[in-house]
Write a structure and sequence with these properties.
Blueprint lengths: L3 E6 L3 H13 L2 E6 L2 H10 L4 E4 L8 H10 L8 E2 L1
């Protein structure tokens, strides 16, 4: 069975670390980026099973990122947790 892939988008290093540990404990493979822009670049090449998105980030916040993700037909169906 292939591990499920989760993407964490959070500007807080400690939040990324803590969430990564929890997800790995539940058999997820985890990738993490620190901004909405980095997430868009990552999503252009890969498709995760789930996205965890911080709502307060410098630059584009999580709500703007969510609108961008849901507007793209390739990523619109990916579940997002904010």
């Amino acid at each position: 069975m292939n591990a499920r892939l989760a993407l964490i988008v959070d500007d807080s290093r400690s939040a990324r670390f803590a969430l990564r540990k929890q997800l790995e404990h539940h058999a997820f493979k985890v990738e993490a980026v620190e901004s909405a822009r980095a997430a868009y670049q990552w999503l252009a090449a890969q498709t995760p099973d789930l996205i965890f998105l911080d709502h307060v980030m410098p630059g584009e916040d999580g709500f703007e990122a969510l609108r961008h993700i849901k507007a793209n037909p390739r990523t619109a169906a990916i579940p997002v947790v904010i």
